[in-house]
Structure of Acetoacetate decarboxylase family protein:
Amino acid sequence: MPDFVIQGERVALPVEIRTATAASAMFLVRAAAVRSVLSYTGLRVFEPLPGKAICSLAFVRYVDGDLGPYHEFAVAYLIRPPDRGGYGVFIHWLPVNGRFTMEAGRTIWGFPKELAEIDLGFDGGHARCAVRDGDSLIAGLRVRPGLRVPAGSTAAAIDAYTHRDGVLRRTQWSMNPSGVRARPGGATLTLGQHPVAEELRSIGLPKRPLFSSTIDLLRMSFGEAEEVR
């Protein structure tokens, strides 16, 4: 795998995340609206039910990893891969609070990283995150603790898709979480006055999620991005 030089520092692939904490919520939203949002990608939306799509909102506190410590929020959708069966995850919006990880994410994988103010916390099983553009709230997500999930049952390797500068890319993304808690519902989403917030409203948010989860310790690995088309 190739190495990259980001702001004078060499970054080798795969990029390893050794310690992170995360929370997420999955929502059933309007597929027609998601198709409109993702029209720039040429991808097909995965519909678990006719007319419905899956939107995932997540936030991560990176503590120890090859890109340093930072905070991240993600808006992602389940899609049909263009060249294989099953489904993949398309990363649509990925604000971070660090310039190094922003440049690395854009350069290495084509991730749609941009700078934002991200305030998050994990306390007593509760998790919260607020993403702001200056003083303006974009989105806030609170996740309540759920039931403990058996260890080892949630490790996964996922194809993550990105679209940047007219190029669709696929990256294999592996996750090894521990201390996972999950429950139906369990999260509250608040939207501000911002183009991203308006886009989330257009797909049917805020609403009660299908389910939510928190992860005490998340280890991840990101391989090389492959151009799909």
Q: What stands out?
A: The longest helix spans residues 99-109. The helical segments are 31-37, 99-109, 195-202.
